[in-house]
């Protein structure tokens, strides 16, 4: 329910009738009322209803209008000062000055507006990418659709971890529990089951309905959509916005503080200068202009817009690398990550699973075949056997098929596909290879869902001679809950010897990197009434005294690119810790294949036995944590954040939400992640791939470096202007640069080049240096020094150019100073491309946009110097070719000095601790 500005949906009452109270109807009545068959709606019907009822969306709070954004550009002290300056200029008989200042002010507003609007659009586009999906049954086929396309009457499948897409009347439920806190404030999950309720039942007690905006935290179910969009209970109570909020980031806060400080300095300097000037008994008007010039010179007007735009472009780049940023600060924090805690399954491995071996108490077979096609053989000692003739194998395969939600399907376009998790899919495929399917299976009456704490799940079926619980899960857990096993067609007590043998063998599977999943079953006493709430029989009492059936070894090979990404992390000073729910031996085997050391590996149980201090010590070296639950993850973050700053943590399940929120960056899986995990995350990993996290980190580092580059560059310009004006004043010269000229430099010519600096490619060793400290300032001491030195140099150079000419021709002298400063800055911008590497190392042409920006700035300056109208506005006079040549020559040493300094410093092997200067680790 996320697409804005559409008509609300909802079922309008049929002719002359009012809306039924849905909760008072039985499932059959709801179906009849809405015309929903057992095969769901037809595609055609759904299409028609969509036309009639509108999209399933909440109306969005109105976005700021263009006019509002434009007007906001005028709300700054600087602009107010400039407008006053323009008015004063007009009244003292300088209308051209006034007009020029106003034009620049408007130009600034247009520039600020277009950049801010674009950034807004980028965020909007992101929001569109976060559209919710939902599973419906139409034409008898299960399919995934955009939640916005859901219509009243749709038959919807609800699964654990999903956000409920509309208001739905339940027709079928197993252990369905829903978190309704967003709607009712009730904090514990509520049980849901079909069946009519009395009229007047309050919203919080309508246990046969689920509502849009709430989430399924357990079990599964099906239901018929009764209302959509603004007609849902959620829509009725609020015009709740789901937009990605533009939050302040640490960097933007730093920028705000910088802006404020500079603003104060500007006003201080301007006031001081005016006071001194008045004491010298200069004319008030002249002093006023000087004051304004100083204020304008000190403030980097172009900076905020360039920062905003660079961040927006950065988010787009990250998207291209499969990192979908949900909260703006994440794009910055990503560049400072020092520890990545990652899942194994699907993130480091491919999540394309296949059962390759099955061990039952009576025999062991290998399973052949590739992909999800149900074609393959069962081989015992190399020769094919019929699995259905082996009672143990047959019963095992039947159990893993029944206790399973995945389905297998094929079509011409996609070939064989599974719906559901790959682990369960692999088991369905193995059963299908033996010729087993769920067709004609008995009715499921109760489910105890899987979660990573339980590491097992149970579905109870009503079979001919009573209810039978089928359990699947981590084999060591099932073994310890089994008292008997199924051997050669009969049930026998388990001996300690056999238990040990099975444990050893499952250890062997795991040490080969196989994922091992066990199965067991248990016939239950007849006549149990399976209520939704846990009355009488609970998971604990059902899942004991089990009959063990065996286990399957599932191959899930590591992603080839993950090993390279882990290597890159090592060189970048980033620790990678694999945190998995899987078996310790499987985890260590996969870790080793990926080049992660399994030395000092720990399990969740080890973790629990340790005090905080010991854990803190162990976590410094441990790279593999296995059999870990969501609570363990939370504790690990806690301990890690004590000494190491920025932690990225991946997660996918409902239980992972607290850890995702607690980590500096919570990363949810885009493919296998639940809605709950995604909503708790700062970033969604579109392809679930570990390597994409590392790519995002690289992008984050580049972005930060670039912001540092242009901020420093723009500040050096301001210092140059300030030195020129104050120096001139002290030397008793006329005003060297008038306010419009300074504005022109700050906004137009420097703005262009600064923006292009933001596109600088990553430095060659960006992933060979340690992560920056998250609170590092962009203005480090050495950066400050460089800004001062270069700024003073450019300022003095400008005074020099001016002082030789002003007595002859003031306008020409100013034009020379003005053009000179721009040319000097164009040399200087090349200095700021890197703090460490000379141009020949980073490549003179490696940022073509910057070269274009330089040429563009020069072209603009030519216009300003020669076009009469512009001459009037900016107070310029024509220059000769020799003048240009002189300025070009004068500026060259600025660049040469920078280059020489970098070459010498690289030779001597000294590098400072700075963004873009941090040393390689180790
Ligand atoms: P990771 O944490 O790296 O994603 P994982 O998928 O193994 O790895 P969990 O989902 O926490 O982690 O699963 C823990 C264990 O529970 C698994 O190792 C497996 O033994 C068991 N398990 C996983 N999925 C199922 C399932 N659908 N049914 C029953 N047991 C399962």
List descriptors.
922 residues; 31 helices; 11-stranded mixed beta sheet; elongated; 8-stranded mixed beta sheet; binds adenosine-5'-triphosphate; alpha+beta; 4 domains; single chain; disordered C terminus; Rossmann fold; Calcium-transporting ATPase, transmembrane domain
Estimate the strand proportion.
15-25%
Basic shape: elongated
Query: CATH topology of the largest domain, which one?
Result: Calcium-transporting ATPase, transmembrane domain
Major β-sheet annotation: 11 strands, mixed
Mean pLDDT: 86
Unreliable segments of 5+ consecutive residues: 1-17, 238-246, 912-922
- CATH-level-4 superfamily name of the largest domain: Calcium-transporting ATPase, transmembrane domain
Alpha-carbon Rg, integer: 35 Å
Number of strands: 28
Structural class: alpha+beta
The CATH class of the largest domain is Mainly Alpha
| Helical percentage | 40-55%
Number of structural units classed as domains: 4
Task: Describe this protein's structure.
The protein is α+β, with helices and mostly antiparallel strands and 922 residues long. The protein folds into 4 domains: 22-60 and 126-243, Calcium-transporting ATPase, cytoplasmic transduction domain A (Distorted Sandwich), CATH 2.70.150.10; 72-112 and 248-272 and 284-322 and 695-763 and 775-907, Calcium-transporting ATPase, transmembrane domain (Up-down Bundle), CATH 1.20.1110.10; 332-349 and 559-688, Rossmann fold (3-Layer(aba) Sandwich); 358-553, 3-Layer(aba) Sandwich (Calcium-transporting ATPase, cytoplasmic domain N). Helix content is 46%, strand content 17%. The chain has 31 helices and 28 strands. Strands 10, 11, 12, 13, 16, 17, 18, 19, 20, 21 and 22 form an 11-stranded mixed sheet that branches. An 8-stranded mixed sheet has the order 8-28-27-26-9-23-25-24, sandwiched between helices. Helix 5 runs parallel beside helix 10 (303-320) and helix 11 (328-334) crosses helix 24 (690-730). The protein is elongated and about 115 Å long. Residues 1-17, 238-246 and 912-922 have low confidence and may be disordered. It binds adenosine-5'-triphosphate (ATP). Adenosine-5'-triphosphate binds next to helix 13, strand 17 and strand 18.
């Amino acid at each position: 329910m996320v697409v804005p500005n559409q008509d609300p949906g909802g079922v309008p009452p049929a002719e002359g009738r009012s809306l039924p109270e849905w909760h008072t109807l039985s499932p059959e009545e709801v179906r009849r009322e809405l015309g929903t068959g057992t095969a769901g709606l037809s595609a055609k019907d759904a299409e028609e209803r969509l036309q009639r009822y509108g999209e399933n969306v909440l109306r969005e709070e109105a976005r700021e209008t263009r006019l509002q954004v434009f007007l906001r550009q005028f709300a700054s002290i600087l602009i107010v000062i400039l407008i006053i300056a323009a008015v004063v200029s007009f009244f003292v008989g300088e209308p051209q000055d006034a007009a020029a200042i106003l034009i620049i002010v408007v130009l600034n507003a247009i520039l600020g507006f277009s950049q801010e609007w674009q950034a807004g659009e980028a965020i909007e586009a992101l929001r569109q990418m976060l559209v919710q999906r939902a599973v419906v049954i139409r034409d008898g086929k299960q399919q995934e659709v955009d939640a916005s396309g859901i219509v009243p009457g749709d038959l919807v499948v609800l699964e654990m971890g999903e956000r409920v897409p509309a208001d739905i009347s339940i027709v079928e439920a197993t252990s369905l529990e829903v978190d309704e806190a967003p709607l009712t404030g009730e904090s514990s999950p509520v049980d849901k089951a079909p069946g009519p309720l009395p009229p007047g039942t309050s919203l919080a007690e309508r246990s046969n309905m689920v509502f849009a905006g709430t989430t399924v935290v357990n079990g599964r179910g099906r239901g018929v959509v009764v209302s959509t969009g603004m007609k849902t209970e959620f829509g009725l109570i609020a015009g709740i916005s789901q937009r990605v909020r533009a939050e302040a980031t640490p960097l933007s806060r730093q920028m705000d503080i910088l802006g404020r400080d500079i603003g104060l300095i500007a006003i201080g300097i301007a006031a001081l200068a005016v006071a001194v000037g008045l004491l010298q008994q200069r004319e008030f008007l002249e002093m006023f202009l000087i004051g304004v010039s100083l204020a304008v010179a000190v403030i980097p007007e172009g900076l905020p817009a360039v920062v905003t735009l660079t961040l927006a472009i950065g988010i787009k780049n990250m998207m291209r690398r499969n990192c979908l940023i949900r909260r703006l600060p994440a794009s910055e924090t990503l560049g400072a990550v020092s520890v990545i805690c990652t899942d194994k399954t699907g993130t480091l491995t491919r999540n394309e699973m296949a059962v390759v071996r099955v061990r039952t108490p009576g025999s062991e077979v290998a399973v052949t075949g590739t992909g999800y096609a149900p074609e393959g053989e069962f081989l015992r000692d190399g020769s094919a056997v019929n699995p259905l003739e082996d009672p143990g194998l047959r019963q095992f395969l039947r159990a893993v098929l029944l206790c399973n939600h995945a389905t297998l399907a094929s079509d011409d376009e996609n070939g064989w596909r599974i719906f559901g998790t790959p682990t369960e899919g692999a088991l369905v495929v193995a059963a299908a290879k033996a010729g087993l399917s769920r067709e004609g299976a008995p009715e499921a009456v109760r489910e105890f869902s899987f979660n990573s704490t339980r590491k097992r799940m149970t579905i109870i079926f009503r079979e001919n001679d009573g209810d039978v619980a089928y359990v699947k899960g981590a084999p060591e857990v099932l073994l310890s809950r089994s008292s008997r096993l199924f051997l050669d067609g009969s049930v026998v007590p388990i001996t300690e010897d056999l238990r040990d043998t099975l444990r050893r063998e499952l250890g062997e599977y795991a040490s080969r990197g196989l994922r091992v999943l066990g199965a067991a079953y248990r016939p239950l006493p007849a006549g149990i009434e399976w209520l939704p709430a846990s009355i009488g029989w609970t998971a604990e009492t059902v899942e004991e005294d089990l009959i063990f059936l065996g286990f399957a070894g599932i191959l899930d090979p590591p992603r080839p690119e993950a090993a390279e990404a882990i290597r890159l992390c090592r060189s970048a000073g980033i620790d990678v810790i694999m945190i998995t729910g899987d078996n310790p031996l499987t985890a260590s085997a996969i870790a080793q294949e990926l080049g992660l050391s399994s030395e000092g590996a720990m399990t969740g149980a080890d973790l629990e036995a340790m005090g905080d201090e010991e854990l803190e010590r162990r976590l410094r070296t441990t790279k593999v944590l296995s059999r870990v639950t969501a609570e363990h993850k939370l504790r690990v973050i806690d301990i890690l954040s004590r000494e190491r700053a920025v932690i990225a943590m991946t997660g996918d399940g409902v239980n992972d939400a607290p850890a995702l929120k607690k980590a500096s960056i919570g990363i949810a899986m885009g493919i296998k992640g639940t809605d709950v995990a995604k909503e708790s995350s700062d970033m969604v990993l579109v392809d679930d791939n570990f390597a994409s996290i590392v790519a995002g980190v690289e992008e984050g580092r580049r972005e930060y470096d670039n912001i540092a580059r242009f901020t420093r560059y723009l500040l050096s310009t301001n210092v140059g202007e300030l030195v020129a004006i104050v120096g001139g004043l002290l030397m008793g010269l006329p005003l060297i640069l008038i306010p419009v000229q300074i504005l022109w430099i700050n906004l137009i010519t420097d703005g262009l080049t600064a923006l292009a600096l933001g596109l600088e490619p990553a430095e060659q060793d960006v992933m060979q240096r340690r992560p920056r400290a998250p609170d590092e300032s962009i203005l480090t001491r050495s950066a400050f020094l460089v800004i001062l030195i270069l700024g003073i140099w450019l300022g003095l150079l400008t005074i020099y150019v001016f002082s030789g000419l002003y007595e002859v021709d003031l306008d020409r002298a100013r034009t020379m100073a003005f053009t000179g400063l721009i040319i000097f800055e164009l040399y200087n911008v090349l200095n700021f491309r890197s703090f460490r590497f000379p141009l020949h190392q980073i490549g003179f042409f490696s940022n073509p946009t910057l070269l274009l920006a330089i040429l563009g700035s020069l072209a603009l300056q030519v216009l300003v110097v020669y076009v009469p109208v512009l001459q009037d506005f900016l107070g310029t006079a024509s220059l000769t070719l020799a003048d240009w040549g002189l300025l070009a020559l004068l500026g060259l040493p600025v660049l040469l000095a920078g280059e020489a300094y970098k070459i010498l410093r690289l030779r001597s092997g000294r590098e400072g601790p700075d963004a873009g200067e941090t040393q390689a680790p180790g």
